[in-house]
């Protein structure tokens, strides 16, 4: 299953990597791709949306609806 979330505050490749690492640490995530220009992160796997949001926010970024 694929989920896409809107991530505010990514401004460089390091930001994308930080978001991807945070998401890939969530149980059930098999792959994560962040795109700072689109302000999105796409996640493959069975993780709950709330867990994905929490991981991104814990990494210091904002998730918008």
UniProtKB/TrEMBL annotation:
GO molecular function terms here?
metal ion binding
Q: Where is the HMA domain?
A: 1-64
CDD domains to which the protein is assigned, alphabetical: HMA
Residue ranges of coiled coil: none
Superkingdom assignment: Archaea
- What does the organism's lineage look like at the top? Archaea, Methanobacteriati, Methanobacteriota, Stenosarchaea group, Halobacteria
**Gene3D superfamilies from the xrefs?**
3.30.70.100
PROSITE patterns cross-referenced by the UniProt entry:
HMA_2 (PS50846)
Q: Which InterPro entries match?
A: HMA_dom, HMA_dom_sf
Q: What is this protein called?
A: Heavy metal transporter
């Amino acid at each position: 299953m694929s989920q896409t979330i809107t991530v505010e505050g990514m401004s460089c490749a390091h930001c994308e990597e930080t978001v991807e690492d945070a998401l890939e640490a969530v149980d059930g995530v098999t792959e994560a791709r962040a795109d700072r220009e689109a302000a999105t992160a796409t996640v493959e796997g069975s993780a709950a949306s709330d867990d994905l949001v929490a991981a991104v926010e814990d990494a210091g970024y904002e998730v918008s609806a």
